UniProtKB/TrEMBL annotation:
Family classification: Belongs to the KhpB RNA-binding protein family.
Gene responsible for this protein: khpB
Function, as annotated: A probable RNA chaperone. Forms a complex with KhpA which binds to cellular RNA and controls its expression. Plays a role in peptidoglycan (PG) homeostasis and cell length regulation.
Subunit structure: Forms a complex with KhpA.
Chief location bin: cytoplasm
UniProt GO molecular function: RNA binding
Origin superkingdom: Bacteria
Coiled-coil annotated spans: none
Domain R3H: 139-205
Protein name (database record): RNA-binding protein KhpB
Keywords: Cell shape, Cell wall biogenesis/degradation, Chaperone, Cytoplasm, RNA-binding
Swiss-Prot/TrEMBL GO biological process terms: cell wall organization; peptidoglycan biosynthetic process; regulation of cell shape
Domain notes: Has an N-terminal Jag-N domain and 2 RNA-binding domains (KH and R3H).
Pfam entry (one): R3H
Length: 207
């Protein structure tokens, strides 16, 4: 996090000079006025304004720092393909030991995504959503979930009993809901609290 201390005839002039030095915008910094300007006597003995301007921590940058730190402690070297759109932050990880980060059924990846979400929102005034992937695992997982959804929907219909899926993050639950949105004979809803929230497939009652 960069910080500069700048002087100016006025507080606003000093802030403007600091923003130029940092190459950033007003909403991305915090300003501390160290001294207000003072007028001298007949133009003598005056003092300039002194301000300290610091860049606010950026959730996008802090999330990447966190991911590098965690994976380093796990003994895994990674590269991060990072992008952002509005309040969504996307990180696709790659590396030799990427399977360790994915874990069984993506559980390790989901846990890491949950923690990264907490880190990102610690440094943001508005809610941001982190989507964490590893060598496009999410797309492969999506296909698996769609197949699972249809298989369990058929089970619910055949047994005429509700079927509960394992706890999943919101993105995976959405895949299940969308896969069965047009399926006749069943309905779906989510139940429970994060991170244990799960999808339940309910067969429609025959009249």
């Amino acid at each position: 996090m960069k910080s500069v201390t700048v002087t100016g005839k006025t507080v606003e002039e000093a802030i403007g000079a600091a923003l130029t030095q940092l190459g950033t915008d007003r909403e991305k910094v915090t300003v501390t006025v160290r001294e207000e300007p003072k007028k001298g006597f007949f133009g003598l003995g005056g003092k300039p304004a002194i301000v300290e301007v610091s860049e606010k921590p950026d959730p996008f940058t802090e999330s990447q720092k966190f991911l590098h730190e965690v994976t380093r402690k796990m003994g895994i070297s990674i590269e991060i393909d990072a992008s952002r759109k509005d309040h969504d932050l996307y990180f696709n990880l790659s590396g030799e030991k990427i399977a360790i980060l994915i874990g069984k059924r993506g559980q390790t990846l989901n846990s890491l995504q949950y923690l990264t979400n907490l880190v990102a929102n610690r440094f943001s005034d508005q809610y941001v959503r982190v989507v964490l992937d590893a060598e496009n695992y999410r797309e492969r997982r999506k296909e698996t979930l769609q197949q699972l959804a249809n298989r369990l929907a058929e089970k619910a219909i055949q047994t005429n009993r509700s079927v509960q899926l394992e706890p999943m993050p919101s993105l995976e639950r959405k895949v299940i809901h969308m896969a069965l949105k047009e399926r006749k004979g069943i309905s779906t809803h989510s139940d429970g609290k994060e991170p244990h929230r799960r999808v339940i497939i309910v067969p429609e009652k025959n009249n």
